[in-house]
Amino acid sequence: MKTNESMNLYQNPVCIGTGLVALDVIISGNQTTPTQFLAGGSCGNVITILSYLGWSTYPIARLSNNVAAELLLEDLKFWNVNDTLLSINDDGSTPVIIHRIMKDQQGAPKHRFEFRNPEDGRHLPSYKACLAKSVPDIFAKKQNPNVFYFDRINRASIELAKLYKAQGSIIFFEPSSTKDTKGFNECMDIADVVKFSDDRIINYEEMFPQAKAGLEIQTMGNRGLRFRKKNQTKWTLLSGYSIDNVVDAAGAGDWCTSGIIINLFKNPAEINNLSDNDIIFALQFGQALSALNCTFEGARGLMYNIKRSELLLYIQHIISSNLQRIPQSRNTNSYEIKKTGLKISSLFAAV
User: Fold this and answer.
1) Which residue ranges form the domains of the chain, and what is each CATH number?
2) pTM for the whole structure
């Protein structure tokens, strides 16, 4: 088991990430809670969580110059995320995702992501990949990250991953599908860590009977997750944590990813030299973060309610005590969540 000293992981290692960086419009079923406009998307969440946990983070995205981008940047800056690799111009796009929190007929919480404006039914702005021609300029601005994270398959992401891998960075690939077979296989050739959900990629074992990456992680919702290392065929299963008070399961995977990264890749490491004990601890750390965030609204609600120092002590207690269930979390109201009465249509106005 790790000691208190080994929990002191946060001395500004660097993560650069590219992929889905979006504005989340969080609409709660609780009518007393105003709509929240916060940074989101898989890459956006991971980058922001890592910054909250003490890393230096740099998202790469191609955004448009509008109110949505302004609100997104405001939230990123609040969490000290570095914006020097962001492109904001007229040919970009600031994705907007409605994150609606509800309850089913039995009163159990659920959430839904919506991609149409409820005010007029039109499609909301979607993701635009960075252009491949921008890669040299991006790479020249910031090099040598501990980790390069990406969640979308495109030429710019692949070329950046190659450049950062050549410098010794850990390449963390979190695909949402395998539709682009050629691109997916190219990413697999580069990736050191591959993490995916079993409900997004259902035929992974058929494609790769034997582990190709240094570490492969398959998440399985409330059944936990499993992992295997390079050239292994057998998976090791880790059960998840039970939760007393689930409020919103959105963002759970992003917290799990962040917990893995901060525990395994703070220092330069050979991915193939990681011990099973180190991997299991990092995965449990990520699972505990993931479960705890489910007791708050929003993909990153935990960040706005618990200070980092308190969170780390709590996660240490969960793991060291071998708890199977996450108790009701204490809301400390550490931060003021950005709330606004903006209409969704106003997000697309230029600034």
Assistant:
1) 12-333 (3.40.1190.20)
2) 0.93
User: 215-219 and 225-229: which strand pairing?
Assistant: antiparallel
In three-state form (DSSP H/G/I as H, E/B as E, the rest C), the secondary structure along 34-69 is CCEEEEECHHHHHHHHHHHCCCEEEEEEEECCEHHH
Residue 246: φ, ψ to 5°: -75, 130
pLDDT in tens, the chain (351 residues): 344 434 444 458 999 999 999 999 999 876 667 889 999 999 999 999 999 999 999 999 999 999 999 999 999 999 999 999 999 999 999 999 999 998 887 878 889 999 999 899 999 999 999 999 999 999 999 989 999 999 999 999 999 999 999 999 999 999 999 999 999 999 999 999 999 999 999 999 999 999 999 999 999 998 999 999 999 999 999 999 998 888 999 999 999 999 999 999 998 768 888 999 999 999 999 999 999 999 999 999 999 999 999 998 899 888 888 888 887 655 555 566 556 678 888 898 887
Q: Which residues pair with 56 in a beta bridge?
A: 14
